[in-house]
Amino acid sequence: FPVTICHSGGLHRHREKVANKAKIFQETLLMIEQVLNNKPEKFVPEIVFEPLIEKFKDIPQAGINILTEVLHSYDCDNFAIMNQNSVSGLALANIIGFPLRPTKKTVSAEKYVLFCKKCKQVCEALGLKNFTELDALLNYAYWN
After folding, report:
1. DSSP 53-115
2. Residue 48: count of CB within 10 angstroms of its CB
3. What gap in Å lies between CA 80 and CA 114, rounded to an integer?
4. Would the pTM of this model clear 0.85, i.e. be above it?
5. pLDDT tens readout for residues 60-119
6. Which helix (H) or strand (E) holds 121?
């Protein structure tokens, strides 16, 4: 399991509640591993997000932020981190249509796929290497 998830503020803040559903969280991580191991090509949001969001619905306080950080930690080229910081940062560039506070109830697989596509366009326009660089930029924009 990649260690880049460790920077998740949501996971850190709600670790006890997530830990109470550790088995489901671990099953979700195993689902990602199985997809990676069984597919020769990179996995993409369209294939992965829907089953994972269903699993995450049973884990209190493990929301879109944590889910997308997990996905991003496995593949920073195809999975953008979706949280209040990133949505607000994109809105500064007039890229709107995403919930300001993404939750498991407000973000569908379709909406997340669109979010990743918009983020990819921003990366290309700015010459960013991957979604990790975009996340750093959007966090900077959000906090400043």
Report:
1. HHHHTTSTT--HHHHHHHHHHH-TTT----SHHHHHHHHHTT---S-SS--TTT--HHHHHHH
2. 23
3. 11
4. no
5. 777 898 888 888 888 888 889 999 999 999 999 999 999 999 999 999 989 999 999 999
6. helix 109-126
Paired tokens of 45 = 């949001």
Q: How many C-beta atoms surround the C-beta of residue 77 within 10 A?
A: 13
Could you give the C-alpha distances from 128 to 3, 86, 90, 100, in angstroms and in order?
Answer: 22, 15, 15, 23
Task: Identify the residue whose tokens are 């890229």.
Answer: 95
The Cβ of residue 62 has, within 10 Å, a number of other Cβ atoms equal to 24
- Residue 55 structure tokens: 């699993």
d(CA 63, CA 116): 17
Long-range pairs, 133-138, Cβ under 8 A, ≥24? 134/80, 134/86, 135/72, 135/80, 135/81, 135/86, 137/89, 138/85, 138/86, 138/88, 138/89, 138/90
